[in-house]
Amino acid sequence: MESLPPPAVRVWKVSGDEVATLSAEDALDLSNVRSLKRYLAREHGLPGFCQRLLQNGLELEDHAVVDFPSEPQLVMVQSHVVSPAKEWQLANSFHSRDLQQAESILGEPCDLRSVLRPILSNAAAAGHTEAVDLLLFANPRPGLNSLGTSLHAASEGGCVDVVRLLLRARADKDALISGKTPLSKSAGRGRMEVLSLLLEAGADMEKGSPLCSACASGVAEAVRMLLSAGADARTRAADGPPVYIAADRGDIDILKLVLEARANANDTSGEDTPLYRASFRGYAVTVRLLLEAMATVDTLVQGKTPLAAASGRGHSKTVRLLLKAKADKDTSSPLCSAIRNEHGEVVSELLTASANMEDAATGETPLGLAAGRGMAAMVRMLLQARADINKAAEGAEAPLCKACAGGHADVVRLLLEAGADRTVGSPLCSVCDEGHTEIVQLLLTARADKDACNADGRTPLWLASRFDFPDVVRLLLSAQADPNFVVRLDLWISGQERKTRVQAE
Asked: CA of 298: how far to CAs of 307, 351, 446, in Å?
């Protein structure tokens, strides 16, 4: 049986207990006594400035060469607590990168537990590799909190050499701070070398949602690396799963990556779906990719379909894609949504697709909506599409009355020319209490009933007189309106009373 080669270096305590054994291969990295101390600090947690190595009873200087084979003795000296003045001096020396002064303070040696965490974290964040190396030599086991905070800072800053040092010092590669790990910090910042290093070190790809962080920051290269390393494309963070985050950003490259990795195109963020979010934002290419990935086209989000969301925002390309995918043209009334926001191109697309001319939820008609808001172009389109010119929602006025009440003369003219029924409601009453002379003239020319009462029994002449519109009064009298409005009102009231009695009987 082949015997093992003798160790190159064996370190003993004065008591005779063995501290460490280094093979010839391990000893290749030992250039001097300081490097041996660094090895003992890193591998055995022995503070470097507290170590004293003796050979034949004499202390070995840091710059001395280590002979092979050798068996030095190790003596550990006691560290002392630093004074507040020394703490400030030490922190300032690291801040100014005066490592010579820092080493002279650390070499006394001193207990760093009270000051190490902020100094180490700041040095790590700044990518000051020599400072981190010196601090870890002085205190190789600074505690998980100090190491974790520092690893976070270095990972976020992309300080590869510092990350490597901290990992060798046994920093927790999966430490959570504010819901993030070093891996998610590096992924979100696009620190590819650090990301690769942490993955090689076996960092957890689910904890802290690094894939979602990369998606939210739009770092496609990081997404690709994480997926290649086996990250689950169906994971989720507070913002939702990767597919939703990519859809919300309209990030085509990342969306393709996660869909290729078998992400669910219908995976939700709360009630929201990727397709709804992309439709709402008008990301047409994103919508197409989701539809190709079999996203459900009519899922309701807060009572609206993706088509209604896109219609209300005027995203005509998205509307065309959804209509081509057989989206429901009627639920949540995408046509009314488009009209409310004056998106003519979308209205045209929906009318071409034969969208319903009535809001199923409210009964409101697109024509009544457009007429009441004075949207002449919309009214013209709806009339050309053969919208019911007299239809009104239950308890609402007809389109003509709405246009009159709003003082929209151009819309009134369009409706009258298209044959709107002047006897539905009381269009003259709708306009006389506002004094819209031009519309009164249009209605009289179209032979609207000049004496028709409104729901309160008032005639157009009574309203014009009550609100002091002499020009309107003059027009009505010229058209032979009945000035005996009191009789008319009394007749209406008695008629209402008679109707009430009949219903009661």
From this structure: 8, 19, 45
Q: Characterize the bridge pairing of strands 9-13 and 51-55.
A: unpaired
Q: Report pLDDT for 503.
A: 45
Cα-based distances in Å from 345 to 182, 337, 443 = 48, 13, 31
Largest Cα–Cα distance in the chain? 132
User: Is the distance from CB of 137 to CB of 120 less than 8 angstroms?
Assistant: no
Domain ranges of the chain: 9-78, 249-348, 357-425, 429-505
With residue 21 as reference, give the H or E element that holds it.
strand 18-22
- Please report the pLDDT score of residue 35 as a whole number: 94
CA distances from 193 to 171, 184, 223, 354, 496 (A): 18, 13, 14, 55, 85
| Same-fold call for 357-425 versus 429-505 | yes
pLDDT digits 0-9 by tens, 114-155: 777 888 999 999 999 999 999 999 988 887 677 888 999 999
**Positions in the chain whose pLDDT score sits under 70:** 1-6, 144, 360-361, 485-505
- And the tokens for 483? 């000035």
pLDDT score at 500: 42
**Cα 72 → chain centroid:** 60
SS3 letters across 379-391:
HHHHHHCCCCCCC
pTM (predicted TM-score): 0.82
**161 CB contacts (<8 Å, ≥6 apart)?**
127, 129
Backbone angles phi, psi at 59, to 5 degrees: -75, 135
Report DSSP state, residue 50: G
Three-state secondary structure readout of 117-139 = HHHHHHHHHCCCHHHHHHHHHHC
Place of tokens 């690396």: 225
State how far the Cα of 347 lies from the Cα of 422, in Å rounded to an integer: 27
Contact 436, 412 (CB under 8 A): no
Instruction: Return the pLDDT at 502.
Output: 39
Residue 501's pLDDT is 46
SS (H, E, C) 237-255: ECCECHHHHHHHHCCHHHH
Superfamily of domain 357-425: Ankyrin repeat-containing domain (1.25.40.20)
Map residue 404 onto helix, strand or coil: helix
Say what the pLDDT of residue 478 is. 93
* 274 touches 307 (CB < 8 A): no
Give CA–CA dist 367/363, Å, rounded: 12
Q: Which of 35, 31, 26, 36 is nearest to 5 (CA)?
A: 26
Q: Which residues pair with 8 in a beta bridge?
A: none
What pLDDT sits at residue 488? 47
Which residues contact residue 427 at a Cβ distance below 8 angstroms, ignoring those fewer than 6 apart?
A: 398, 400, 401, 404, 412, 443, 448
Specify the CATH superfamily of domain 249-348.
Answer: Ankyrin repeat-containing domain (1.25.40.20)
